Structure formats: C-alpha cells, structure tokens
Amino acid sequence: MKLKVNSVQFQKDMKNIIRYSEGFLDGTKAGKVLFFRNLAIEVKNILEEFIDSNASVSPQTLHHMYEWNQVGQDSGRLFKINAVANGYGINFTAAFNQSQTIKDGSRVPFYDKARIIEFGIPVVIEPRTSNVLVFEDNGDTVFTAGPVNVNNPGGVAAQGGFEKTFNTFFARYLSQAFLRSTGVAAYLERPMVYKSNLQQGKRMGRSAGYQTGYKWIASAGMTGR
C-alpha cells in the first residue's frame, strides 16, 4: 500500500494556515478597539442602573447622589459615568453634578451636595437674611444666632457610599454576573469561529485570518443580547 503526498500543496497549505493564524491574531488586535467601545457603552448603562438599584434598596448610603426625593431615579442622578475606550481597555470615571432642587425648608439648592456628602466635608451654616438661623434636628426645631458646624453632613453611612458601590460593581458584579449572564465571557473563552473558518484560511491565508479575527472580537461585546 502506497500513500502519495503532494509535498508542494502540503507546504502551501501549511504556510497559509500559519498566515491565517497570524492574520487572526492581528485582526483580533485591531478589532479590540471596536469591542471595547461597544462594551464600554453597555457596561456604563449597567453600572448606572446598578447604582440606581442600590440607592433604592439602601437610600441612606446613596441619597446624596440624587436630587431631593428622587433617590434611585435616573432623572435625579447627581453623578455622570464617563467611559473612554481604546485598544488596551476601558477607563471608567465618575463626575458629580450640581443639585438643582431645593429641600423643604430651604431657599437655595445644597451647593456641591454630592461631593460634600460623599467625602464627608464639614460645612458651616450661617443665617443669610436674618440674625437667627432656624433648622430641624431629629424632629426638633432649633433657633440659633450663631453659625452651625456640621462635621458629617448626610450621615456616616453616606460618606464614601458612592465609591463603595462603584468599586463593588467592578470587583464583583461585572465579572461574576454581567460577563457571565450576557455570554461575553463564554464567547471570549471559545473562539469557535477560528476553527470553522480554517478551510478558508488554508486557501486564502492571512487575509482570511485577519477578517475572521476582526469580526470575532468586534462582535464579542454584542453577544448574548
């Protein structure tokens, strides 16, 4: 029994497969920019909803991140999530907005409310239009002629509440729930498209690999939706 092997064709096929693999890696690298951009938009939206949900469940820790009487509502957010994506990853940051609403008993909005309460910055309250300052403390009405020093506005539970929720999302929810439930993690762990297009790669080499790699990674952020 004799087995004939076309060594010329075999070498050509092997070279094309190697070029296909190299093209696949290059295409994956190029497509990561689009992948991260798509993922950044979705993660940003999920993060905002995650914060809203936590605020509704635990208003004492996140009430300062919303307008008065709008805790947990997207229309009342005093924070803005920014997501900047490139070929290396995504950078998420948060900025605080000024409050526009007025609390019952006040005449002006609480300036820098979100930042002051989040970082526990002490404030001094002084009468502006009269010689007496009137405010409520634990249900009692207090009258005073001097300034009032508030060492921890918003309460101890609120200080750092936004940062803790923000960090919890990325440390736990993103990897343990979001990426798994949406199918993104499984998609990235098993690049089945590489094998399914191997015959095309044997014929076309690098160009087939590049297109396959680019489309595979660029579509990863949209999988499972």
Shape, per Cα inertia axes: rod-shaped
The percentage of residues in β strands lies in 5-15%
Helix content: 40-55%
Measure the end-to-end span.
55 Å
Question: Please, what is the average pLDDT?
Answer: 83
In the sheet with the most strands, the strands line up as 1-2
Structural class from helices and strands?
alpha+beta
Number of helices: 8
The tally of strands reads 6
Task: Walk me through this protein's architecture.
The chain is of the alpha+beta class and 225 residues long. β4 (133-137) and β5 form a beta hairpin. The model has no long low-confidence stretch (mean pLDDT 83). Among the domains are: 33-121 and 156-181, no CATH class; 190-225, no CATH class. A two-stranded antiparallel sheet has the order 1-2. Strands 3-6 form a two-stranded antiparallel sheet. The protein has helices at residues 7-57, 59-62, 113-118, 161-181, 184-189, 192-196, 198-204, 206-220; strands at 79-86, 89-96, 123-125, 133-137, 140-144, 148-150. It is built from 8 helices and 6 strands; from the N terminus they run ααββαββββααααα. It is rod-shaped, with a radius of gyration of 28 Å. 51% of the residues lie in helices and 14% in strands.
